[in-house]
Amino acid sequence: MRTTSTPAAADETSPLPADDSGLFELDLRGLRRRWASAAARGAIGAEALAGADKRAQALGVPGRQLMEHAGTAVAAAAKALAEATGRWGRGPILVLAGPGNNGGDGFVAARQLARAGASVVAVLVSTAARPSTPDAARNWDRLDAEPKVNRVQASSPRELSMLAQHIERAPVVVDALLGTGVRGVLRDPIRSAVELLLRARTKGVPVVAVDTPTAVDLSSGDATEPVVRADLTVTFHRPKTGLLTRRGAALAGKVLVAPIGIPREADRG
Length: 269
Description:
Elements: H1 28-34, H2 36-39, H3 46-58, H4 63-84, E1 93-97, H5 101-115, E2 120-125, H6 134-142, E3 149-154, H7 157-163, E4 173-176, H8 190-202, E5 207-210, E6 232-236, H9 241-244, H10 246-252, E7 254-258
Parallel strand pairs: 1-2, 1-4, 2-3, 4-5, 5-6, 6-7
Helix pairs in contact: 4-5, 5-6, 7-8
């Protein structure tokens, strides 16, 4: 049975996502209440978040720990959305992950969703055989030990079109392609992955975006085409200015702000 959080769970003493034993029992309303203190912080843009992230690591908070909390939050939200729409358990969840740290968050989400009982297809959308950052690569490798996760590399539009077959069976799809938005024209294979996400949504499959829908700038809310249109966006640490603009809000859908363990000393926002 799904539960909502208690009022006490919404304060600063709430456990961070990866340490929260009750997280996967919460519905979307419960997650919102659990993370209410993060949502109440002032909004920042992509550059300010990157600075806070770097200062947190300089203070001794490992990047892999921040990624673990972020990906766990995404997994809990994706499960809650799938259950809210009556789609949980219908088929494999598709996680489309780029080669950077946004993709690493997606790989953590894939692992946590599998451990919550889902079958998952985790797709590295890249012409390179491995993710480009150490933390993302580490979490990509960890998926090899997960029996309910099928790892796939998609480096071309053709490979992504094959993944689009029977996409309507997916409970949800996760957009973990590009976390800070982009400037200029999207290039393949990322462009084709965005088109796959758009196709999934036309088939009635909910889309969960990691930090921001791909091609939406976290600071300005500006978007390039094609752009992901999410049903739910899980952003991290603080609300983002780009997702509060008219354009950004329309593309992000519902927004949850999840804490990931950036200490106050690192946060100048």
